[in-house]
Amino acid sequence: MKDVPFLKGNGFYLRELRETDLSGDWYQWLNDAEVTRFQNKKIFPNSRERQSAYYESLAASQSDVVLAIADSDSHRHIGNVGLHKIDWVHRSAELGILLGEREFWGKKIGKQAWALISEYGFTTLNLHRIYAWVVEGNTASLKCAQAAGFKEEGFIREMFYKEGRYLGAHYMNALREDRKH
Q: Which residues is 65 bridged to in the sheet?
């Protein structure tokens, strides 16, 4: 099947999630300590069955839009980016991103994907506010947020328990009017 990009970046594109993505490494990304180092993941072991249940819940959701990040050359599924907890009354959503294939780290894919999904949220979904939690120490995500016009509105101390210690989180927020033109 030929991919039809939903949104295009430089060296990658965003497309719909597919059931065939379940047969790849997607579920294993969530078992990888380095991939999930700054995420509220890898608390319980993930399996293809759990990932399939998550995929089904996304397919039925009216409050989540999650897109696969695919490499332009190989068309390989390398991560996901999405808007979660969409509140259609207050016009807000939480941004989440996971770049699971390590060889694609450091290539500005996360930064572009963050900006693309934000712009989609503001212009297509007519959102007023998009927010994200960035775990302390995750300088890459903090830079992605800032590049997309997100501002830090607070820091929550000891919000997440990860690998035997509590970590704080930056509350990042962007309003439709904040986006860069």
A: 83
